[in-house]
C-alpha cells in the first residue's frame, strides 16, 4: 500500500487495523534469474534497482537472519560525499544525490536529515589536507567550505577549541551531508523491492555454492538448493566466508567496529562532528541520544561485539573534544563486522568464477554508499559490465597495482 498523510489519517480512524505487511514471506522458488546473498542495505538496494532500473524481477534476496540484523542496523547513520580521489568522489556524490530523493522514490520515511558534517583539523598538515580535499570536492561540483578557528567556535560552541593537547585550528564542512535512520533504509528498500516482485527470504543461511563446469548454478541453503543464473554476494563482513565457498580468497580482512548511543538529552549538537586526532564522530538523534563511534577494534573477528579497551578510547576522545560528555551515561553499544580492504576502497566486480559477482570491502564507507552501491551493482549484474563510476573498484586492481587509497595508508586494512 502507498503511505501518505491521508492513509495515516484513515487508518487512525479504523484503529490502525488496515495496515498491510511491508513485504511478503515467500517460500524459495526452485530457480531465479538472480540470487543476492545478504539482506542488508547493499543487497536490498541491488534488488530494488535490478527491478526498478533493469526490469529484472525474478530475484531472491537471501538473508540468514532477519532484515536489518546485520551492519545496516549497526552503524552511526552518517551520509556524506566529502571524498578526495577521482575514483571515489563521483561515486559517493551519486549516492548522496540518491539519498536526497530516496524517500519519495520508494515511498518510505527514512528520516533523512541533511544537517552537515564538520571534519575538524588540528595542525598545519591536516589543514592543508582538508583544503586539498575541499578543492577536489569543489572541482567535482560537490559542496565544501573551510572553517577557520573562529568559524568553528561560532558553529559549534560546545567544542573545546583551545584544548592544550589537540587544539582545533579549523575544519572542512559539507552542508549537504547528514544522517539517515539506518534500519528504516533496510525496511524501505525491502518494501520497494518486494513491491516490484522480488522475493525476500529471511532465516535462510547459505551453506554452499553449487558449481558445474566452472560456473555457479545456484546456492545450497538451510532451506534446500536454490538455482540461479547469476549469484551476487553482498555479505559485508562475512564476504570472505561466502567467497571461500567458491574457492576465492579476497583481499579483505574482517574487523569489529563498535558504536554507541547515550541517554536522551535536550538538543545541542545540530550537525555531525568528527575529531581527527582521536577518530571520534558524533551526532544527535531525533530522540535526543548522542550517537557516536571511533576506530575499529584492530583485531580480526567475525563477532558482532567489541571490547572494553575501545570503549575507553572512544570515551576519552569524545571527552577531549566535548568536555560536557563527561557527565553523560552510555545507554547501549553494538558492533558491526567490517570488511576492510587492502586499500580502503570497495570492490564491485565480476569474480573469476563465471556467474558469480562480488560487492565487498566497504571499510567505514558502507552505509553512506548504500544507494549508489545498489545502483551500480545492479548495473553490473544486469549488463555484465561495470558502471562507469565503479571502473576503478574492480577486483583485479590489486594485481595491477592500481590502488584506490583514499587515506594514503598503504596495504594495511586496519589503518583505513
Task: Describe, in short, the structure shown.
The protein is α/β, with parallel strands linked by helices and 416 residues long.
Structure characterization notes:
The structure is a single chain. This protein is of the alpha/beta class and 416 residues long. The chain has ten helices and 18 strands. The strands form three sheets. Strands 1, 2, 8, 9, 10, 11, 17 and 18 form an eight-stranded mixed beta sheet that branches. The chain has an eight-stranded mixed beta sheet with strand order 5-6-4-13-14-15-12-16. It has a two-stranded antiparallel ribbon with strand order 3-7. A hairpin with a 2-residue loop joins β10 and β11. The model has no long low-confidence stretch (mean pLDDT 95).
Q: Total number of helical segments?
A: 10
Distance between the termini: 42 Å
Annotation, overall tally of beta strands: 18
Q: How is the biggest beta sheet arranged?
A: 8 strands, mixed
Q: Identify the overall geometry.
A: globular
Helix share bin: 25-40%
| Class per helix and strand makeup | alpha/beta
Mean pLDDT: 95
Beta content comes to 25-35%
Uncertain stretches of 5 or more adjacent residues: none
- Rg: 21 Å
Any key phrases for this structure?
single chain; 416 residues; alpha/beta; eight-stranded mixed sheet; 10 helices; 18 strands; globular
Topology readout:
Blueprint (H helix, E strand, L loop, with lengths): L4 H9 L17 E7 L3 H14 L4 E4 L15 E2 L9 H18 L10 E5 L2 H16 L5 E4 H7 L14 E5 L3 E2 L2 H14 L3 E3 L4 E7 L2 E7 L2 E10 L5 H6 L7 E11 L9 E4 L4 E5 L5 E11 L7 H14 L8 E12 L5 E4 L5 E5 L9 H14 L13 H4 L16
Parallel strand pairs: 1-2, 1-11, 2-8, 4-13, 11-18
Antiparallel strand pairs: 3-7, 4-6, 5-6, 9-10, 10-11, 12-15, 12-16, 13-14, 14-15, 17-18
